[in-house]
Amino acid sequence: MKEVTLKQIAENLGISITTVSKALKDYPDVSKKTKALVKKEAKKLHYTPNVFAVNLRTKQSKTVGLIIPEVVHHFFSSVINGIIEQAEKKGYLVIILQSNESYKLEKKQIELLISKRVDGIMISLANSTVDISHLLEVKNLQIPLVMFDKISKLVDCSKVIIDDRQAAYLATKHLIDSGCKRIAHFRGALLPQNSIDRFLGYKKALEDHGIEYDSTLVYICEKVNYEEGREAAEQLLKDHNDVDGIFCITDLVAVGAIAVFNERGIKVPDDISIMGFSNWFVSSAITPSLSTVDQPGYEMGKTTFKMLFKEMKAKKKEEPFSAMTKVLDTAVIHRNSTR
């Protein structure tokens, strides 16, 4: 089927192409009668604007890229909802890509978004990302870039984060204040900044409260999932019989640990207290309900797009723009997994 053009509509109505274009865009200098005629004819011919031509004129694609480690994660699904809500308000389409925690895939996805000429990119880094050359290339091409949650301090761009170190400190302090004296930490992989900061917050809380740090109580969960939570809990039971508290890097890891203790007849929190991180919906649905740190995913998504839009707007107007970092608030949620 041949594409309907503005010229065809103009010829059918005996008016200029400029008048047709203005009528479709509701310009005030075109009469209501002419607008109605043009829109009726356009609808009859099934006219749709040539997006590529519009983009060429405006030098905007009206699309932005979003790369996240995993879609199924409740936190990231909340981030996506926040981003899409704000993007739709500004007329932007969001291309969502999942890196599966793979640096190689993340790099390919950055290259894809660059080739698609997106107006901006938002990214939460994969756990395996060390080389940041692909992100520096985005900056070199002057494509607006915002990092969120899992970031690199080596990239000079806007960032939306929480204070992971302080949040982990308060989570560990909550365990200490409830009477725990031997606290394990089920941490994430060694590389991501948020994993590092949560570990450091845990360690500092122990030191500040006179509890000696013991490296044998730290268990690494590379994939940060339910299965690893189970594995870490089972290993903990083999290694130590005196642990009375666990701070987990995410709720999913904590849920895996609780499942093991429930199966073994170990009472939570009477025998051992467990603290999660993120405040997934599942944290209030399991038995016992999980004490956790509320991580504002939806708010992070909204803020991330707003910061990207601000930079894209400045670029369009050829105005100077300075990267900024926004730190969102967190809160400890006390439920039944801690005393």
The CATH level-2 architecture of the largest domain is identified as: 3-Layer(aba) Sandwich
The CATH topology annotation of the largest domain reads as Rossmann fold
Number of domains: 3
Gap between N and C termini, in Å?
Answer: 69 Å
- Largest β sheet strand count, sense and barrel closure: 6 strands, parallel
Classify the secondary structure makeup into a structural class: alpha/beta
Mean pLDDT: 94
Task: Output the strand order for the largest sheet.
Answer: 2-1-3-4-5-11
Relevant CATH superfamily of the largest domain: Response regulator
- Rg estimate, integer Å: 26 Å
β-sheet strand percentage: 5-15%
Number of distinct beta strands: 12
Helical content class: 40-55%
Shape: elongated
Can you describe this structure?
This protein is an alpha/beta fold and 339 residues long. The protein has three domains: 6-49, no CATH class; 61-161 and 298-328, Response regulator (Rossmann fold), CATH 3.40.50.2300; 164-295, Response regulator (Rossmann fold, 3-Layer(aba) Sandwich). Helix content is 45%, strand content 15%. The chain has twelve helices and twelve strands. The strands form three sheets. The chain has a six-stranded parallel beta sheet with strand order 2-1-3-4-5-11, sandwiched between helices. The chain has a four-stranded parallel beta sheet with strand order 7-6-8-9, sandwiched between helices. Strands 10-12 form a two-stranded antiparallel ribbon. Helix 5 links the parallel strand 1 (63-68) and strand 2 (93-98). It is elongated. The model has no long low-confidence stretch (mean pLDDT 94).
